[in-house]
Amino acid sequence: MAHSPNGNTWSKPAAMAIPKEGYHKLENGRYGPLYPRTPANHGFTIIAKVQKGREQAVREYGKTIEGAIAGTPDALAVLKLHYLRWVLFEIEGATYFMYQGIFDTDFDKYTEDAVALFNSLGVNTVFENLEGFPKDWKTNAPAFIKFLRDHQRPSFLEYGEYPYVTADEIKKALRLKEKFSEMLDQMQ
Amino acid sequence: MLELDDIQHILLTRAPAMTGRYEFLSFKDASAGRTWLEEIRGKVHSAASARASVEADRRWITVAFTWNGLRALGLDETSLATFPEEFRQGMVARSTMLGDTGECHPDKWVGGLASSDLHAIVILFARDEPERARCQTEHERLLARCEGVTVLSTLDLQATPPFDYAHDHFGYRDRMSQPFIEGSGDESTPGSGAPLKPGEFILGYPDENGPPFGLPQPDVLARNGSFMAYRRLEEHLGKFRDFLNQHGKTAEERELIAAKLMGRWRSGAPLVLAPERDDPALAADPKRSNDFNYRTQDPHGYAVPLGSHIRRMNPRDTGANMNRRRMIRRGATYGPHLPEDAPDDGAERGIAAFVICASLIRQFEFAQNVWINDRNFHELGNERDPIIGTQDGTLEFKIPRRPIRRTITGLPAFTTVRGGAYFFLPGLKALAWLAGNGRGTES
After folding, report:
1. CB neighbours (10 Å) of residue B284?
2. Higher pLDDT, B209 or B373
3. pLDDT at residue A9, as a whole number
């Protein structure tokens, strides 16, 4: 499937079907296979089982992160995010945690930066409530990265109404619109 | 406290050498390798001894091993398995991710560097030509005594004129920005950042994340060593000069294009501080030449293009997690000097450099994979490092300026990787241990 990140592709909605492996052609980054940039940009969906009785602890992190971002709005800027979604759901009496992120960078490239950021914000501690999370994650970044990769569930379809547009481009366009409106006001 | 008497000198000192020679070795069996190591290890300077006698010394030796080389020396499988995955795999296996494709592919490497028979490197830095020749002869004699140690290839190094400051064949001044290591005894220069924890570069010490983790075993290998990525990078000087002529009508314009590719004038003066014209006095003043940042001083890249070499290799205050990405660079130029007005003679010339860091995957490979070769670094879309990135003629280089930026398309490859390898740089006690001292003769 043709999918060019360059050129004026934003005006034409696009969808991409993705093979089971999560990529069209195996290409390795530093830590493992690279997943393609799709019309919905880069991203991941991490699904892991919550330790018994820890559901509320995970849920409470929602407030923690809300507070952290309110206090430091650019705290996550490094990750070039569009959206994060945290979801809890049940299967046969067990609780699962889904962490879905949509962003503009290839996760393999900025993995350590994300881990460092999670550490500094305390986001990682939410993972301590998940089954199979490495106990020595604070010092063992490779084990943390392996956990994320092992629990990543690649999409088999991704769609973008304005494909391949980055968050920075959106912010630039909105800033331009704002300045342009201001200019028109000044012309009255 | 750094154990300066156990750390190989190359990690912390820069020898005042004008020439040098690298020899790439292969061990037929463990005893041959150990015999050679036992004889040469006494000539390897520690950081402490190199500092103490730098004025009198005429040569400086460094010894390092590939993972295959450690195995060839008889290191047991349990210990071999404790080394980091990327080092065990070696540079050849990591080549696609590193961007070593096309003309840079390991199939085209020279000197046997892509071979699994590459076991060790011995690095000689010498004060002058006669000393290099003397050391070369002495090493030939040593090898003659060590049957089973063969030379895969060698590379002679020499500074390229003018000799009053270090620079590459393109003419860019080198050694402008080095990390400053806590406890090393070195003086920091303005703009070099806060001192970094030694564990970022030397195994066995706390790093920027805390206590060291995942060190090679046994303990003797876990302290005062480091990892080293070797890159032999041919510089296509004729192509570089043609490019400057093609895109600059006057000498001033050509110098500015050269400066934009690098982010510094060839003198070394940083474009952030000298955006309009060269300032050699600024370049020569270490208190000023590195004292700048990007976020407030040049956010849009009007002085230093976002994709220029120095802005990629050290994004300073515009990069995240910077303290965990720093590297020590050592090395020298090789090949004949090509005078400014001479046509390209077809000879190979370039730089043969070492990147030294505690974690190849987190430091060297990140720089290579992301800073140098990510086409979308800083949202540039279609660029790689203009000097050392993998270029196939399809990428561009954008020079921000008002009102509209200049875009140079079809950027040629000014450099080609001609070889490389990952080495483990043991401390002096570890060299003795690897030579067989203190562990019997088991293999």
Report:
1. 15
2. B373
3. 83
Would you state the pLDDT for residue A124? 73
Q: What is the mean pLDDT of chain B?
A: 95
What is residue A7's predicted lDDT score, i.e. its pLDDT?
A: 57
User: Per the structure block, which two tokens stand in for B168?
Assistant: 């590459």
Cis peptide bond prior to B162, omega within 30° of 0: yes
Calculate how close chain B gets to A26, using CA atoms only, in Å: 11
Pick the closest to residue B70 from B426, B442, B421, B437 (CA basis): B426
Q: Are B173 and B267 in contact (CB under 8 A)?
A: yes
Q: Is the pLDDT of residue B166 over 70?
A: yes
Do B214 and A168 count as a contact with CB atoms less than 8 A apart?
no
pLDDT for res B443: 40
Q: Are B24 and B111 in contact (CB under 8 A)?
A: yes
Q: Do B362 and A112 count as a contact with CB atoms less than 8 A apart?
A: yes
CA B386 to CA B377: how far, in whole Å?
A: 13
Residue of B nearest to A166 (CA): B379
Asked whether the predicted pLDDT for residue A70 surpasses 70, the reply is yes
Tokens of B278: 């060269």
What are B152's two structure tokens?
């895969």
Q: Which of B96, B324, B382 sits opposite A112 (nearest CB)?
A: B324
Give me the DSSP letters along A19-62: -TTSSSS--B-SSSBPPPPBTTBEEEEEEEEBPTT-HHHHHHHH
pLDDT band, residue A3 (cuts 50/70/90): very low
- Measure B51 CA to nearest chain A CA, in Å: 34
Residue A46's DSSP bridge partners are: A99, A152
Q: What ipTM does this complex have?
A: 0.88
What is the pLDDT at residue A8? Answer: 65
pLDDT tens-place string over residues A129-178: 999 999 888 778 888 889 999 999 999 999 999 999 999 999 999 999 99
d(CA B220, CA B3): 13
Which residues face B149 on adjacent strands?
Answer: B27
Q: What is the pLDDT of residue A142?
A: 83
Q: Hey, what amino acid is at B164?
A: D
Alpha helices in B159-315 (DSSP H): 237-247, 251-262, 280-283, 309-313
Answer yes or no: are the C-beta atoms of B390 and B412 closer than 8 Å.
no
* Rounded CA Rg of chain B: 22
First and final CA of chain B: distance in angstroms? 34
Q: What is the pLDDT of residues B308-317, one digit of tens each?
A: 999 999 999 9
Place of tokens 């990892």: B227
Residue range A68-94: mean pLDDT, rounded? 93
What is the chain B residue with the closest CA to A111?
A: B362
CA gap B335, B372 in Å, rounded:
24
User: By a Cβ cutoff of 8 Å, what residues of chain A touch chain B?
Assistant: 5-6, 27-31, 78, 104, 106, 109-110, 112-113, 116-117, 138-142, 166, 168-169
Q: Looking at residues A87-103, what average pLDDT do you find?
A: 96
Q: For B354, phi and psi rounded to 5 degrees?
A: -120, 135
**Closest chain B CA to residue A138:** B209
Beta bridge partners of A14: A160
Q: Has residue B440 got a pLDDT over 80? A: no
Contacts of A151 (CB under 8 A, 6+ apart): A46, A47, A48, A132
Distance of CA B16 to the CA centre of its chain: 17
